[in-house]
Each structure stands twice: as C-alpha cells, then as structure tokens.
DNA sequence: GATGAATGAGAGTTCATTCAT
DNA sequence: AATGAATGAACTCTCATTCAT
C-alpha cells in the first residue's frame, strides 16, 4: 500500500502536457527545494541539475516563485489526493478483522509511506511554515480528502463496541499524534535514524489500542 | 509556571556582556528571523529595526550566519535549559497528588508555554529543518536536559501502580505526541486558531491518563 | 493630395515579393516600433501581433536590427519618394494661380499629411536620433527627392516678382520651419492636441507670404 | 550670455547633497543617455564610466528608471529655469535699441546655446518622445518659465510700431520655428555640421524682421 | 516555409560584507 | 565603538537568436 511520491509526481507531470525538459526542471526543483530549501536554491542550480539552460526554466514558468507554486500545487492537488485515495482504497478489512489488526495495518502502512517519502514531506512541511498561500492550499485540500470509507470503518468498530465513542476527528488526531511522535524526529534529522517501521508501528499500535478502548 | 521566552532571551543577552546596540541587534534578528525566516531577512532590515548602522552589526558578529548561530545558540543553550529547569522545578507534587492532577498541571503548563511563545518556537523548528548544525545542537541539548526530578515523579507513580511500567522516554514520547497533536496545527497556521488551552489540555490529559493506565 | 503612409507602406510590401506572414511581420513591427520604440519592442511581441511564430520572423529577416532596417528603408526609399512624387505631382497650379493660393494649398496638404501619419513620422524621427545609419539614409534620400517641378514653380513666382529672390533651399527651410512650429508640438505630445489643420495652415500661410514677399 | 548646461547641471548636483561618487553616476548617466539613449545604456556602463561599482549606482537610486528621472528632473526643474532666467536677465536692451539689434542678440545667443549644449538637448528631445511623464514635466515647466520681461520688450516694440501686433506666443512660435529650421538639422545629425552661428543667426534675423514687420 | 521550445549571454537588481571616517 | 557609502559576486529574469520537427 505504501507509495513512492516521486512516482506519482512524475505521473502528474506526464498529465501536465509539458516537454521532457520542463519535466526535468520540475523534478530538479522538487529535489533541490527538498534538499536545501527554496531560498537556498538558485535557478542556475535547478537548470544545471535538469540539464537545461537557465532560459528554459523561464520559458514555461514565469518566475522562481511560480516554479515553487507548481511543484507544491502538484503535490497538494494531485499527489496527495492520489495517495489518500490509494491508501483508503487499499485498507483491507472484513467483518472478522479485529480493530487491532486493522489499526496495525494502517499505521504500518502510513509509517512506511512517511519513511519512504521524507524529502517530499520535508518540502511541504517547510514551505507550509513560510508560505501562507501554501498553508491555505494544503489546509483546503486536507479538508476535502475522501476519508469517508475510513470513517465508516471506525464507526463500525464503534458500533461493535470495540472502540471508544469519540468523534472521528479526535481519533484521527490521536493516531496522527502518536504516529507523529515516531515520524517527526525522523523528518527533522535526516540520515540519523535507522527507522525500524515494524517496531515503531507495533509500539504505536499498542498504545493506540489502549487509548481507543471503550 | 509558563514563561515568556523573549524575557529569558533578554536575560541571556544581559549576561552576554555586550552593548545595548548589540542587544538590540540580536533582538531584531530573533524577531525578523521568526517573522520572515533567515534567508528572507537582510542585514539592512536587522540594522534598521535595531536602530543601528549596518556596520555595527558586523562589529560584533562576523557574518549573518554567525548572527543566526548566536541567536539560535542562546535559545538552545541558555533559554531552553532555563525553561526546562523552571518548568521541572515548578512542578508541584506531593505524596497525595493524584497522577491525573499531576499530568493535567504539566500539560496545561506546557501548552500555555507553547501558545505564549509561538514565534520563537517557529524559528527553532524552521532552522532545524534547514540547518544541520542547528539540528545537532538542539539534539545534543535535549539529551542533556535535567529531567531527573520529573523522571522520579513518574517512577513514583509507577511504583504506586498508578501508571504503566513503560520506559520514561516512551511515556514522554506519547505525552509530546498527544500534546503536539494540538499544538503543531497552531504552530503551522499563524493567527488562525483561537487556542483554548483549558479545553485542549483537558482533552489531552483525559486521553493520556487512559493511555498510561497500568 | 494627403496620403496614408500605412497604405503606401502596404503597397511597398506587396512589391517586395514576400509572403503574407512576412508582410504581417513588417506591419506589426512598424506599429510596435512606433508605439513603444525599437528597443522596447521584443521579437516575441512582433510575432504575436503578426499572428506568427518567432521563428517565422527570422525566416525572412536575419536579425531584429535588419527588421528595423527593412521597415525604415521601406519608409525612406519607397514610401517617402512616392509621397514626394504624389505631392509634387498633385500641386495644381496655372499661370493665373496667385502665390498665396499656391502656398496655402501646399501647406494645408502637408499639414494634413503630417497629422494623418503621426505614428510613422514618430518612428522615423526617433530612429534618426539614435541610429546613425538611419540618419545617413534619410539624409541621402531627402537630397535626391524630385523637387524640380516645385522648384520651377517657385522660380516662376520669383520671375514674376511675386516672391523674394532667395535660394530655393532657403525658402524651403523657412516653410518647413514655420510649418514645423505648428506640427512638431503635435508630434511630441500624442493625443493632446486637437489639430485644426485649417486654422493652422491659414496662419502659417499668412506669415510665410509676408516673409517671402520680395 | 550662452551657458554650458553641464556646468549648471553640476551646480544642481552640488545642491543635491549627494556624495562625489553619486554625482559621478549622474554625470555619467547624462553623458551616456545623451550619446546612446536610455535603453542602449547599461548600468554597468554607467558604473564603469563613473569609476564606481555597480552596487553604488543602486545605493542612491532605486532603479535605472529612477536614475533617468533624476537626471531629467534636474534638467527640467533646475537647469532649464536657471538657463531661462539667465537668458532673460541677460538680454541687454535700452530705449535706443532697434528691434533688429535686439532680435539679432537674442537669436545669436540662443543658437550659440543650442550648439553648445547639443548632447543635453538630445536627451531631453529623445526622452520626451518616448516617455509620457517627461512630456508632462517638460510641458508643465515651460508654461511656468518667467518670460515676462521678454514679453514686455516685445510689447514695447509693438507700441513703438516697430513690429506687428500679434500675440506674444505667436511671435515666439515663429522665432522658434525659424531658429529651429537651422538648429534641428544639427540636433539630428551629430558631428556633420560645422555650425556657423554668426551666419545662421544673421539669416534668421533677416527673415524674422521681415516677418514681424507691422 | 512555418513552428516554438530551447538557448545563454547579458541585463537589472540585491545584499552580505568592508572600511575610511 | 559606531557609522553608512561603497563594493562586487551572485541572483533572478529577459530576449534575440537557433534549430529540430
């Protein structure tokens, strides 16, 4: 179930009807913005990583800011919904699935996803901190994500009396909080952790099951 | 128990044996780095906010990078330990204090602290994402923070059988995770939330008590 | 007698044996050079006003400079001689025509011509100021203009004792000077004057008759 | 009576309270704008002619456009009024002065002035053709020039019956027209004419006296 | 002939840093 | 110690020109 954002990003670029060079520009931008941050990346660097002349960058994109916008918007408006859809659709659950197993699956999957896509997550996090427009776009997108199927599962477990009768958003908040307590340190310290997703997801599931008991 | 980082930052500057002008420079730097980010702040802006000539900035500080270093180091090596000390020292607990009350106090206090010091937290978070040196410094400092007294309290509650026998770091991780699930959205969306610390800390305590039950 | 330069320019283009697209390029160039000046006009703008791809511009013309050359040369070497010929040929004069009537006709005609063709005159004036080659071309052309018929008329009036025995060029200089004193302000302030050609030519004729009396 | 605009321009710069380097920048700008036109002059060229670093140009002036503005405004709002004042004040005329002598003096003086200051006149002419703001500023300034003393002289000659009873502005128009018929060709062809101011002013005076007879 | 994406030299501009005062 | 004009490397961006399609 875990995806490579870079692959989905490339698919998005393919749908954008731009030339191979322009795609290379956007890929180089994503990579460099992720590695060094937007302000510390020069258009010259982007061009040379993309094997392209500086002017080519500006053929399609009006400014460096617009380049960021396009990269971020692709992530927010194209990649994130795809990721969310595939994630939600990929959740395997039957009438017999215990909540613990269900939760373990979700958590392991999302942790693996985070660990697999640290650079792209970092760009989004960083730009969200600096750029108001990005904040609003991301927020607007998150609100619209199709979590209905997931919501239904949780409602089912609530009806069966397996988990507490809290609001769906509150439950999500705590799952994200506990998962984040493992993932955020990794996001912030690149290359320092050997992330053991199995161990982390096991622990996180344990505590969350306890937390969400009726 | 909650503190104003800016006040502690000023105290730190007073101890640094620098002139009033240089203090103003550091204060202006912290403010502007927090508002616009390091890269988007020019030395001219810093100088003019500090009511000082550009040259004066370079009298004391070798470079703009050093200026950031000094600001960040002051926060990490002076302010954070003070904050931690005062926090830990300020925790009121007796033999009769129930764990719930103890936890509620801690959480409310730290949430209030976070809400009161958003700009400074933002600088640290942002620079930690871009700047490897800052990452290492912050990490090295956190490890050395004097949490022994706190640790003892938790050990006590564990001995009394009031909380689960998890590792202290694991317990802290979950507390930070749950508290973070309320605070992080506020850090990322400046000016959008009316933070109701009372309500938030109440909810967070409720879930954490459940989570930490034996 | 007054002509539209744009019409003559088009005729010139028709004689040039170039494609419709290339004609559109030259027309767009003339228009944009006149509106914004050569340096402030980009080849992209020319192409898009001409509804043509940039490459098409360079199919026919070696460089942007050559484009200017062609436009200017068409004006100087084709349009101006035509204008001059038609003007000179169109002067109606018989043995009975008084000098005043003759002069009034000439002046009114040329003033109307100037007012009708301000944009093209502006291009020529502007480029003449910046571009040495244009200066030389224009000068060389003016010297060769076929003013013989006009010269004869003036010689006739001189023989009849109706006008002063000045050199033809000196007479022309003063006519141009007086007419210019009305027209130049209009050239320099686009859109500010309601040019009353009747009134202006009347005044100019009055003073010139006086001036050219024997 | 004839002045060097460059000297008056320098005086204006001295009154502007700017450093020697900044003065050099403005002088270099005037020179280059005059020689090659604004668009064909690069900030690098200005800096190197002024013996200054590129950055220095931008220390005082926000943009290349502002540099032009400052140069033009100095000419229009400082130099031109000074020139006009000195010219009008310098006109020597007594009750005995014949109109012809009076006119000859004026014309020779202004022709000499024009010939002596061709570069600066060229900048103004050229920018007036391209730049609407300059047009308005120049026009607004010309209207306010203090020609009262001159007007009185002409009124005197009119009362004495020595010249025709035309409106002052109409008389000025024709003087400018005739003088212009000698000067404009020189403005437009730099370095081609050996301007014989004596001969030119003599001819111009001759025709103007005739023209302005009652 | 026509196209327009690609090119890269060079433009205007910024800004961390220096240094004479 | 403080000043701020001066510096120039490096940035973003433009645009005349080319060339594979």
Can you tell me about this structure?
The structure is a homotetramer of 214-residue chains. Helices cover 76% and strands 0% of the residues of chain A. Chain A is mainly alpha-helical and 214 residues long. The first copy, chain A, has one domain (5-212): Tetracycline Repressor, domain 2. The longest helix of chain A has 27 residues, at 64-90. The mean pLDDT of chain A is 91. Chains in contact: A-B, C-D. Chain A binds a DNA duplex (21 and 21 nucleotides) through residues 19, 21-22, 42-44, 52-60, 62-64. Chains A, B, C, D: Residues 42-61 bind DNA. Chains A, B, C, D: InterPro entries: Homeodomain-like_sf, HTH-type_Tx_Regulator, HTH_TetR, Tet_transcr_reg_TetR-rel_C_sf. Chains A, B, C, D: Keywords: DNA-binding.
Mind sketching the topology for me?
The structure is a homotetramer of 214-residue chains.
Chain A: H1 5-15, H2 20-36, H3 43-49, H4 54-60, H5 64-90, H6 99-116, H7 118-130, H8 132-144, H9 148-159, H10 168-188, H11 197-212
Chain A binds a DNA duplex (21 and 21 nucleotides) through residues 19, 21-22, 42-44, 52-60, 62-64.
Domain HTH tetR-type (chains A, B, C, D): 19-79
Organism (chains A, B, C, D): Ligilactobacillus pabuli
Keywords (chains A, B, C, D): DNA-binding
